[in-house]
Amino acid sequence: MIPATFDYIRPASLDEACHVLRDAGDSGDDVKVLAGGQSLLPLLRLRLAYPSALVDLGRLPGLRGVEDRGDHVFIGALTTHDEVLRSPVVREHVPLVAMATATVADPAVRHRGTFGGSLAHADPAGDLPAVALALDCVFIARSAEGEREIPAAEFFTDYLETALRPGEVLIGVRAPKLGADWGFHYEKFTRTAQAWAIVGVAAAVRSEGGDIAEARIGLTNMGPTPLRAQVAEEALRGLGVAHGNGGGPAPGSAPGSAPDGARDPVRDACGQAAEGASPPSDLHARPDYRAHLARVLTYRAVRAASA
Amino acid sequence: MTEQLDAGLVGRQIAESDQLGDPKDGREVGRARRRKEDARLITGRTTWTDNIQLPGMLYVAFLRSPIAHARITRVDASAARARPGVVAALTGRDFADEQGSLPCAWPVSEDVVIPDHPPMASDEVRYVGEAVACVVATDRYKAVDALEAIEVDYEPLEAVLDMTEALAEGSPKVHEAGNQAFTWKFSGGDAEAAFRDAPVVIDRTYVQQRLIPTAMEPRAVVATTDGGSFTVYSATQIPHILRVMLALTTGIPEHRLRVIAPDVGGGFGSKLQVTAEEVLCLLLTRRLGKPVKWTESRSEGNLTVHHGRDQIQKISLAAERDGRIRGVRVDLLADMGAYLMLVTPGIPLLGAFMYNGIYKMDAYDFRCTGVFTTKMPTDAYRGAGRPEATFAIERTVDELAHELGMDPLEVRRRNWITHQEFPYATIAGLTYDSGNYEAATDRAMALLGYDKLRAEQADRRDRRDPVQLGIGVSTYTEMCGLAPSRVLGSLSYGAGGWEHAAVRVLPTGKVEVVTGSSAHGQGHETAWSQIAADALGVPFEDVSVLHGDTAIAPQGMDTYGSRSLVVGGIAVLRACEKVKAKAAELAAHLLEASPDDVEFSTGTFAVRGTSEGKTIQELALAAFAAHDLPEGFEPRLDAEVTFDPENFSFPHGTHLCAAEVDTETGMVRIRSYVAVDDVGHVVNPLIVEGQVHGGIAQGIAQALFEEAVYDSDGNLLTTTMADYLIPSAADLPDFVTDRTETPAASNPLGVKGVGEAGTIASTPAVVNAIVDALRPYGVNDVPMPCTPERVWRTLAGAAPPGSTAAGRGGAGESEGGER
């Protein structure tokens, strides 16, 4: 649990940080951005990562905090999970972010770990990437050349890989406010309270007169990147949530059937939640079990979000 | 309000009533004292081994084998020596002449094979994590960095991972002599007769998965020398045993070796060991003349702290149709890992006498085969043999109940030893001194609301609720308080089971208690102070307890096997009584009375019928001054005692677990957990409560969470806490605890051991609950740990309710890793 040697750079301003990162990128150095350190430091300590330098943004001014900006909420990249949780703006306008953040690790981690760091780390087992996808958030990146916007759907490119270019820093995320006709739920499945999600489902559902008008479903830990369950989303459109019931399948019966044997179309639609996913295999779950969980948990999340 | 909440309230009231007010009779024993050691332990303002800084200190890092089984063809540490800050880089060959072989103190049988176990491998490695080289440097970072410069060439050999395959003809060998470490047999009664024509025979196989003891404080060693003598600080449970063993292993004379266990942050058996790192640090300080320190990382610890459990249990139970048990047969395979460490082969034997549990039966037959594999050696882990035995019998008795269509508690009632029958000589040759299984069970059923939960279970089954409810029972006893020396001798154990205590009343009347028990979190300082305060009639605050340093507490057998109170605590009491007798003699002399006329009451020795008396403090000063002493009376008021127990200690109790199983996801949630333990008289209810809570948590951890997993090449996959799951408080239910108090007949305080009871009891209670919930699905077992995926796969392979298909356990399992 002792990291290899690395250089440590603490720029005084965002501009300086961008320049340091650009120079490092030009010279081919493996430089990592350090924010709260809750994901990066364990990788260093286990010697799974050997960066030549860390650029510590932790104390930079201006990247921390939550702002109500009319049609969206802006969350600064260095806002800690705990600050996100305590923000009335987040709770009122983007409650799905609060629901998922509340499940991140434990209070100690939430006091150090940051919203932006967790997204830029792009761990598909992290809770926030799936939420950002479900909400169609917009990522704001800054480099020495200026700012650019990256839609959530384009941000997560591969396992621990993002669309951020060398020399770019994630400075914050715009989370659109969704109207009063939207409901939200984050359903996380873990073996212990502090563990990463075996599977997580972030659901945002817009209801119209008892029917599902639109469902957006982000999946945690169902592939090398966070995913949208697009097939299930399509299948859910227009279904009446009132048809469903809260029960599960009868013992021994197939997933998708209700206890009384009647078909529940919402459950059937959620049964397609794992379509197109390529879930990982690890000690906690093999792929077929993850796919099964994605179907069950999507049903639970959609029902809770449309309740 | 649910039954659970009602029971929780009762539990809290009971707990609180222990803490309220002063004890009725002014006695310390029985009082829920807060632990006097806790302030320093909780704030960390104390000496842990890793805190120790000595002038000129060097830091050690070990290079460990990345291969399960290989011949070492070349090791070259020269490049590491050139790294900055490196003082030495050494390989197994460098230690060949001095490192000896790590000891096994329990040669259990005539056929036991004890392979050479060099602290640092030089020719062959036999598990991933075995040390092959080390670097000593001026700081820890430089030492770890330089490990990367050491070159080792390995010629891979076949890994040996599966116990059954290891014993098969033609298996690759872990050691020249083969893979069988020992065989051991024991029987009582006529098992042939018991099983012949038995109306009911239950045959089951249970797997006790491999566990990694995870003490909060990692292992750490500091070794230092002044050139002539040596001091080893270690986060160990056993400073005294370690001193003897280090002397025997390294040849350093015992009288020039001091071992100190500073405050130690938990052990659970994992620090009942003589480790390679302890020996090598001692050799390094001798070689370099400088103090050296090594502290393991958590991942290093997962690889190289000895593991626990890892047994395959074949158990057969023969019974009458009315539920009466005729006999039990057990055939055990026990994974030793690659070597026999301090008590490795003895662990399954500690369970050998417990497979009969609390039940009467005519016959019992036990055999065990120890097997070598290319994995980390196993050894003591909380309960050590007894959790495994208790699990097997308590699971099997539930299976019997199911087979007969009886309530699991009713089957137990028909078989258990009734309270009138104590002392009871069991079929396994032990004499249980006392117990009242009926009382503990009745209390537990009331606290759980057993009948109401059974009704809810029936309702959920009728409704085909996706969340099913199960109730698991565990009526356990265990043998602890290790142990009468003659019994240990009969089991070929390498030492006795006594304990030492010294009590000194200082000139100012304050008291020092010196104990050979080496606390590592249990609260000895508080409990021993309570015992001494009562025995000597001095204030609790006036007692200090000294331990854990062979120069301060020179004699001892240390702490394991729930032995501290029932052996070490009794030694303290006996030493106090000796001091008191001496004080009484002096009081009689000073009061010019006959010793027969002197009475002791709350710290004062008085002549019967008079108000004339001497306090123990006055007598201590008089004994110290020594101006006027009786003929032949030695100055000073002190005494020491070495106490050897006459019997084991047999705590017992009834644990009930209600668990909800989500049949859609496989998730198990413990809805309520009731533990009614009988640990005899209680010295400190708060300490007992803490031991019970921690013990239950650790047992639940085996049932639901923990498993050391090796892959098919013999690599440990669970090297971090992200992979090896330890439950935290957030993952555990509110435990409802209560006690019955049936005093032990074998010691003057009437106390029994409590350190392992919760762990022994809880694992089968939880698994029984899960299986009970899933009986309608034809499930009769779920392998541990009962993870959501395992439960789901078991259900996926099981028969739906109403089907006539045979029940199954663990169906659909095909493990990714070897177990």
Automatic annotation (TrEMBL), chain A:
Pfam families to which the protein is assigned, alphabetical: CO_deh_flav_C, FAD_binding_5
Superkingdom assignment: Bacteria
Compositionally biased spans, kind Low complexity: 251-260
Keywords of this entry: FAD, Flavoprotein, Oxidoreductase
Start-end of Gly residues biased regions: 241-250
PROSITE patterns assigned: FAD_PCMH
Span list, region Disordered: 240-286
GO molecular function terms listed in the Swiss-Prot or TrEMBL record: FAD binding; oxidoreductase activity
Domain spans labelled FAD-binding PCMH-type: 1-180
Protein name: Carbon-monoxide dehydrogenase medium subunit
Provenance organism: Planobispora longispora
Gene: cutM
From TrEMBL, chain B:
InterPro entries tied to this protein: Ald_Oxase/Xan_DH_a/b, Ald_Oxase/Xan_DH_a/b_sf, Ald_Oxase/xanthine_DH-like, AldOxase/xan_DH_MoCoBD1, AldOxase/xan_DH_MoCoBD2, AldOxase/xan_DH_Mopterin-bd_sf
Classification via Gene3D superfamilies: Aldehyde oxidase/xanthine dehydrogenase, a/b hammerhead, Aldehyde oxidase/xanthine dehydrogenase, molybdopterin binding domain
SUPFAM superfamilies: CO dehydrogenase molybdoprotein N-domain-like, Molybdenum cofactor-binding domain
Compositional bias per record (Low complexity), positions renumbered to this chain: 797-806
Lineage top rank: taxon: Bacteria
GO molecular function: iron ion binding; oxidoreductase activity
Basic and acidic residues compositional bias, start-end: 21-33
Segments of skewed composition (Gly residues): 807-819
Name of the featured protein: Carbon-monoxide dehydrogenase large subunit
Record organism: Planobispora longispora
